[in-house]
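User: Could you go from structure to sequence for me? I need the amino acid at each position, not a summary. Structure tokens:
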């Protein structure tokens, strides 16, 4: 039994309550009534990312040793941050299962399954915490990705705010998603001799799934916001 599981459970419960509270404080606009989950998920994730995921760069600053050893180094704060993220993705996974049709959410469910498995390994084994923190840098872009979703539901597409967010969204997408995933894939390849075969297989499959998914989403964003 890992104490990290308690952090995961506490994180799951906290984000569950956060989503319920935000839905009462910020009711969905009329345009979002048909898809209340997207509105709730957009508000909740923006708050969550600001509070937890974006602490990832701070952990590298506070614990420089993480940059030198992405496998064995696991400071308590860094390990807890990964565990909190697992709780968040679990809560969002359950929320989608309960409130979304499968054909509308299968891509996100698939994405969350991969993240939960990979981060869960780091939490349970107390290894690859640094690698998981690098992966969390990807979620910095999600702030602007979900702000775009909220602006769409509020019918604010033809506004300066939406256009500015679209530019920042694509810029952070390239830096924090595509470039970060490319670096992680390169790290796995260069360190394949130091990573157990089972873990290496999980990591390789995860990168093989995430990379094309993110490239496809980037193309969709580019086409929707700039080429339509």
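Assistant: Here is the amino acid at each position, in order:
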């Amino acid at each position: 039994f890992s104490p990290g599981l308690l952090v995961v459970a506490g994180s799951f419960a906290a984000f569950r309550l956060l989503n319920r509270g935000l839905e009462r404080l910020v009711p969905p606009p009329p345009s979002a009534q048909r898809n209340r989950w997207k509105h709730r998920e957009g508000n909740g994730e923006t708050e969550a990312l600001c509070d937890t995921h974006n602490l990832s760069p701070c952990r590298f600053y506070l614990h420089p040793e993480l940059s030198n050893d992405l496998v064995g180094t696991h400071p308590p704060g860094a390990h807890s941050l990964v565990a909190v993220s697992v709780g968040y993705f679990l809560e969002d996974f359950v929320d989608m299962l309960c409130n979304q049709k499968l054909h509308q959410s299968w891509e996100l469910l698939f994405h969350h399954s991969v993240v939960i498995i990979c981060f869960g390994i780091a939490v349970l084994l107390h290894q690859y915490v640094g690698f998981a923190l690098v992966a969390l840098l990807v979620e910095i872009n999600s702030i602007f990705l979900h702000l775009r979703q909220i602006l769409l539901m509020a019918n604010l597409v033809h506004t300066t705010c939406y256009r500015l967010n679209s530019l920042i969204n694509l810029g952070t997408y390239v830096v924090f998603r595509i470039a970060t995933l490319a670096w992680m894939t390169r790290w796995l390849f260069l360190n394949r001799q130091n990573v157990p075969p089972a873990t290496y297989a999980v990591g390789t499959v995860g990168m093989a799934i995430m990379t094309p998914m993110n490239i496809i989403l980037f193309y969709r964003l580019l086409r929707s916001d700039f080429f339509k």
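One structural detail worth keeping in mind: The longest helix spans residues 160-190.
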